[in-house]
Amino acid sequence: MNFSFFQSGKFFLVCISFVIASCEDGVFKVPFIGLNSKNEEVTADLPFDPQGQKLGRMIKNMHTSTEEALADHKGPAGPWTLDRVDVGLQIAASFKVGPWGAKGEPSFRLSFKRRK
Amino acid sequence: MRLILLSKTQTKFLSLTLWVMPQLAFSTNYAKIPADWFIPERQEELRQPPTHEVSSPGFVLDTRDTSDHDTTSLERAIGTVLESNSAALDRVEEKGKWQLTNMRTSLAIGSSGTVGILMLEGESAVHLNWRRRPKEQVPESTNLGSNRTSTDVANTTMTAASENDTKNEAEGEPLETINMRAGMAEEDILRAIEPSVRSSLATGRIHNEKNFRENLSRTAKVFSELIQDIDDSVYDLNWYVSGFRLDLIVSASGAVLPWMKVGGDVRLRFIWDRIKRIGSAAHPVSQTPPKSGMKKFIYRIAEDLSLASEDALEGSGFRPDFMRVGVGFSVDGNIYVVKSGLEATFSLFFTRSKKPLKPRHERAIDHKDEYIELASGELENELAYARRHKINYEKVDDNGRGLYQPIHRVMYKIKRSHFRKGLEKSFRIARFFINQVNRHSQKHWEVSRVETICEMSLTGIFGLSPLTGIATTRLDFVKD
Questions:
Q1: A101 to chain B nearest CA, in Å?
Q2: Which of B117, B152, B206, B332 could anchor a disulfide with B135, C-beta 3.0 to 4.6 Å?
Q3: How many angstroms separate the Cα of B441 from the Cα of each of A4, B85, B445?
Q4: Is residue B83 part of a domain?
Q5: Mutation target among A1, A105, A109 for the B interface, most CBs of B within 10 A
Q6: What chain A residue is nearest to B163 in terms of C-alpha separation?
Q7: ipTM of the complex
Q8: Which of B357, B347, B289 minimizes the C-alpha distance to B323?
Q9: Structural domain contains residue B165
């Protein structure tokens, strides 16, 4: 890198490109946002995946887990059968997706119905 | 090594560039909601007071049309969520005995207006409910072919039916739900609560069984008494009460307390759903407005919902489905909207009938001297706001029909005309989200329900609930 690099304005262009790249091709970032245990607002600056790859994998895993968990389920005797299962998913403090606990609301909620 | 010599101007330019560029590069580009989508009290906190005032003595009533604001970044952000969710759902393979039929995405709003996906704790502001599209509506080019089965249409019907349950399942999950009906005798009430009592005791988190049984049966009796009035409240309006709910938590000592979103206590829910067909011989429609008590409150809310214009939703393909209002009851039978988490929260569900609205000019009824009361805790910032804007209020102590220890609350009087304008504003906010849903193509899945969770201002205006907000109302809109 030498004087002519700065002087020619190439450095400026590099910086401008960097700024444009950070805007992800015009798609606005959508953060994960919530309150922590101290009731403080926290924002997870995670790059959202516009192609839905991460969320798709998560749903697929949850689908498989639900199938496995229900495979051995024995419903109550009589005319009642288990027909619908709702699963809450929550972004945890470690910013990993996991099953929803009793606190707050799930980030995503999936409903599964038994096939007829 | 060659020294780089820069002129004074070049040095200034380089310094500026080196300082500014990282700021720009690493600054967040989060989308924010327009400030006036919050209630006026929060707008003051944001130091962004509304600029447009509607003539009204006492306080600023901001009912601006949200289309006046630049919402480009917000549109892009919601579009990102919709496209990401749609793409993720399209990746789901259909196989096995169980089928994914619905997904709900919870959006939250930070105190500065930043919109994001809800994580950890806090109040959500908007729910987007996805359902599988009927096969015949899936565009040819995107048909998955062999992956889809002939049961798709039937399953979609089932999904639509299951959406009717959404009013009772959105906000938190109870351990046990107790279904109640009008006119239950004492032994019927005890029989109804017994399975829930046993389940709750089985958790091992309740140590005083006697206390718990007494408190729960007393609460059940109060709930049952209230149902009777609600069941009879059927009027010739476009909205009617279709459900009633009470959410509670039980402490280790067996005390029955208001539902709170945090904590792992035992959670119980009393539910009443209207099952009789309105207008039938067993359920006649009353033509006369009631004069007092719960029936009067129900009539006023249903009438204001019927009078509020739904013009904002015209041509959107969505219609209002129901509104949940958090309410409380005083010992003298008074009923009011509850703003705080101080007391046991009852919920009234107002459902929109399919009857078309009357023309707007026929709906312009002036209720100058009529109010709806809003109860809140004794919060200094709210009292100061009310004093500044000359909002009438009074402080009361009450034990809410014996459901809890006497509590201090402040009752704010809200003009019905302001409440109605607030409803119209909330329809316009919902329209924004519905527009985004309509704008972004969805293949095998579609957003069929948009839920907006709102705070109610002391002025009567609704605003989207931020993370730290306490939702008083929820408005649900469904795809036609």
A1: 9
A2: B152
A3: 49, 11, 10
A4: no
A5: A105
A6: A111
A7: 0.72
A8: B347
A9: no
